Amino acid sequence: MKKRLSTLLAAALLAATPAMAADAPPANGSAQIPFNCDFEPACEVAPGYYGNISAPASSKFNLSIGGFIKLDSAYYSTNFGPTAYFTPTNVPKNSSTAGQKDQTIFSVKQSRLWFKASGPTLLGAKTNGYLEFDFSNSNTDTTSSGNLNATPRLRHAYGNLDWGNTQVLFGQTSDLFGIISGNTIDFNSGSQAGFFGGTRNPQLRLTQRLNLNKDNSINFSVAVQQPYQSNFNNNGTNGAPGSTAGDSWGAKPNVTAQALFISKALGVSPGYYGQSLKNFTAGFTGLVGNQEVAGNNKSLDSWGASFYTFVPIISSADGRSRANTLTFEGQAYLAANVNGATAAQYVGTAGKLQEARGFGFGTHVIYYPIQNLGLSAGYGRRQASPTSDYKFNNYERYNETYFANASYDLNAAVRVAAEYQRFETKYGNVTNVTTAGSPLGGLSSTGFANIGRFALYYFF
Question: Which domains are delineated in the chain?
Answer without folding.
Answer: 60-459 (2.40.160.10)
